[in-house]
Design brief:
heterodimer, A: mainly alpha, 2 domains, 6 helices, about 55% helix, B: mainly alpha, globular
């Protein structure tokens, strides 16, 4: 393997530095200008924020799956009875932790309802 | 024999070095504080703005941070060779300095989308996802701000002439240490402690 030619490699690194510098500035600008779009339609389901805070990390923001399995469009098939899904959320299953100590029964019911209706839409 | 007194020019030079040192440290501190203030005051969006070819933003962050740490380790090894602390290869190739710069720049670039999501979407936090106080999360938040402050200080040290020779490796070591702490408190935690283990793409 031949060594990079000195001047050419230095120029390349200089260009990379400039490009990364511009990207860094763009990220800083984006921090201030990239505000989320205003909600204009109907208010979000109460389970949406619970899902975003507790479930989205593993199951994906839109329920498309990630570390955990896909939920959007799947949970109703896997759990025809919502009580079974509620039990899994409350008690955990396999690699999924229990949320019974972190969420109230009402919150669990709301997030389960959200995964069965609005998630992924 | 009486000790020679320092000439006036030497005193001026010492003062100038001190001013420069304080200046670069203040710039770094300002960046760290500003990031902390932004992260604390900005309303966390909780959104996931990008995934690229990953299945989720969290996977992107874990892999980017891991790659950044690996590149940082390479950069430290190159620095050790440049400073003569490593003797291999016996003859230092002329492109070593440029390779050191390149690995650092790419590592820094990889941290940008990770930091953006942390700052914009999550904010400065001291509680975990379950809402319980978490030392890990607090250390991660503080170190994240410190890292970019230290990085700015290091860049200024590289660009500015007349600073003490020990300053660049010390600040560089702090930048590296901060990056490792950030990795341990986020990606490594995610890889090791999550039930599913090592994340897929």
């Amino acid at each position: 393997m031949s060594a990079p030619k000195g001047a050419g490699f230095t120029r390349f690194v200089n260009v990379v530095e400039i490009v990364v510098g511009i990207i860094a500035v763009a990220f800083v600008i984006a921090l201030f200008v990239n505000e989320p779009a205003e909600e204009s339609g109907a208010p979000k389901a109460p389970g949406a924020s619970i899902y975003a805070a507790n479930c989205a990390t593993c199951h994906g923001q839109g329920g498309q799956g990630g570390v955990g399995p896909t939920l959007a469009g799947q949970v109703v098939t896997e759990f025809p009875d919502p009580a079974d899904e509620i039990a899994v959320v409350r008690n955990g299953r396999g690699g999924m932790p229990s949320f019974g100590g972190d969420l109230t029964d009402q919150e669990i019911a709301q997030v389960v309802e959200y995964t069965r209706t609005d998630l992924g839409k | 024999m009486a000790a020679p007194t320092a000439p006036a020019s030497a005193t001026n030079t010492n003062d100038s070095v001190t001013v420069k040192m304080i200046g670069v440290l203040l710039w770094g501190a300002a960046v760290a504080v500003l990031l902390g203030v932004y992260a604390n005051e900005h309303t966390a969006t909780k959104e996931k703005p990008y995934t690229l070819f990953f299945t989720d933003t969290i996977q992107l962050k874990v892999w980017f941070a891991t790659a950044a740490v690996i590149l940082a380790v390479v950069q430290v090894l190159l620095a050790l060779r440049i400073y003569g602390k490593l003797r291999w290869p016996r003859t230092a190739p002329p492109w070593l300095g440029d390779a050191h710069r390149l690995t650092g720049v790419v590592a820094f670039a990889l941290t940008l989308p990770v930091a953006y999501h942390c700052l914009w979407s999550l904010g400065f936090q001291s509680v975990d996802m379950a809402g319980e106080a978490s030392t890990r999360v607090l250390i991660h938040s503080i170190t994240g701000c410190f890292f970019y402050g230290a990085f700015v200080t290091k860049v200024l040290c590289v660009r500015m002439r007349g600073l003490p020779g020990w300053m660049l490796p010390v600040i560089g070591g702090l930048v590296f240490s901060a990056l490792v702490v950030l990795f341990i408190t986020s990606s490594l935690w995610y890889i090791v402690d999550r039930p599913a283990g090592f994340p897929l793409f």
